Amino acid sequence: MTNFNRMIFTALLIIIFGTGVTAQQKPLEFLYHDPSRRLAASGFDTTDYLALRRLIDTTSEGRHIGSDASIFLAQRGVTDIFNNIQTQYYMALDEYLGFAFDYLYAVYLIDSSMGHQMVYDFIDTTMIRISQLRGPAYRFDVYRALRLLVNVGDYSRFSIFSSLISEDKDKPYGGDFDLLHAFANKPELRDSAYGLLTNLIAQISNSGQRWLAVRSLSHFTDMPQTQQMLQQIVLTDTSWSMKDNALQILFSAYNDYFVLSSYRQTALVTADILEYSEALWWIGEHRSPLALFTLKDVLTNRSSGYFHERADTVIRLYRPKKPPKAELLTISIDSLVVFKHQVSGYAWLDDKIFVNELDSSLTNARNYLLSEDSNNCARQIKIFQQKVDEEYRDSLDEDIKRVTIEGWKFLYYNAQYILARLPVPPTQFNLTINTVGNGTVAKSPDQSIYDSASTVQFTATPGAGYTFSVWSGDAAENANPLTVTMNSNKSIIAIFTRRF
């Protein structure tokens, strides 16, 4: 495969399947056209229900119009066409199964109980046809009928599906892997569906079908054998696209360090520019500092030419991956602690005293978060980030190199990712109190720093032989007690005078 063709192929896969891997199930579609569009495109007025009702009895030459009209009206709650649709269904069953299924679906929409039983009959009839004439069209209709059953929670025909997809494993049109995922949603069938999939992966020779089968393992990452199976595919498969397919699942489902070593090996030896660029990209997708360490290792070993320049560019533009949106903040903080130790291990962060200061900030942040004090948690993370940033910039000024650019990137940005999920705490102001003469001042609440717009009450108590006179500094009043709003740093002076 040429580089250009490989790029086109990869782009198509990304468009069709996406780059992320998820086991989340979506409702199955029935794989038929939108009847309203077909009717409108054929020149029929979809607001004229009487005219549409007459179309149901259309002869076989216009069967597709009749089936469209049947589904369209059934979807809109028209029920007195049931007998007409049922008649057309049995007629189409002898002529063309594709139209028969459309009529069947219309019957189901009107009377789900009778329609459900007719779906069973349709599947049995179609399977007999398949045994007589092995054409892809009939098989496609069985998949559609099975989808209809599964969508309403009926998994009773799994054995038929299993037989069908096993026979179709190497056919150009292939089997229905989305339907396999749907059957696997039934706890009682999950092991059987997984066994079916693993057998298919072992037996399929068609590269496109095998790619889809391997991709389906992303729906079975809860099974203990899946991770090992994917790693084995990476180690033994000769197809780069198949290896890449397995590696993406390993990365997304397990954050597997095996992925890093595999892509590292590819980046070190490949002469294919696309494979090299994709390997660098996936290495960079790893969250841990090992990702950047691996990129630097590739840079060192690909010491000249395009491959060296490409790695150098990736490293210069590198920014750590964001944590998953669903990740708990406590886990994000714990991850930042781990990253800090890894950064220190790579000598991207040194000076034990400074490391201990960073540890203290993260410990305080976690404790505040557990006590539901998100404002002070944010303040501690901000202190951590500012310390890292200040020491990195000191390093640029040829001071003691406590934080390298690599360490700064991991610690600064991961702190920023946490801050982005916390509220912005209000500005805080310092308060100092002094006295002139013999007396004391009590403040409530008794703190050294206060949130913006908070209020503080001061009570002056004169000592023996003195009386309170006036407040000075940022409060020129004589009221006692005195209330002050903290909208800036404040210095309050209580003046006491001798009593004569």
Summed up, the helix count is: 22
Can you tell me the residue ranges where pLDDT is under 50 for at least 5 consecutive residues?
Answer: 1-27
Total strands: the figure is 7
The side-by-side strand order for the widest beta sheet comes to 3-1-7-5
Structural shape: elongated
Helix/strand order, N-terminal first: HHHHHHHHHHHHHHHHHHHHHHEEEEEEE
Q: What's the pLDDT, averaged over the residues?
A: 83
Q: What percentage of the residues does DSSP assign to strands (E)?
A: 5-15%
| Structural class estimated from helices and strands | alpha+beta
Percentage of residues assigned to helices: 55-70%
General description of the model:
The chain has 500 residues and is an alpha+beta fold. Among the domains are: 329-419; 428-498. The chain is 61% helix and 9% strand. It contains 22 helices and seven strands. The chain has helices spanning 3-17, 35-41, 49-55, 63-75, 82-95, 97-110, 112-132, 136-151, 158-167, 177-184, 187-203, 207-215, 226-236, 240-254, 257-269, 273-285, 289-301, 305-317, 329-345, 352-370, 374-396, 405-419, and strands at residues 428-436, 439-444, 449-451, 455-462, 466-473, 482-485, 490-498. The strands form two sheets. The chain has a four-stranded mixed beta sheet with strand order 3-1-7-5, with no helix packed on it. Strands 2-4-6 form a three-stranded antiparallel beta sheet, with no helix packed on it. Helix 12 (207-215) packs parallel to helix 14 (240-254) and helix 19 runs antiparallel to helix 20. It is elongated and about 120 Å long.
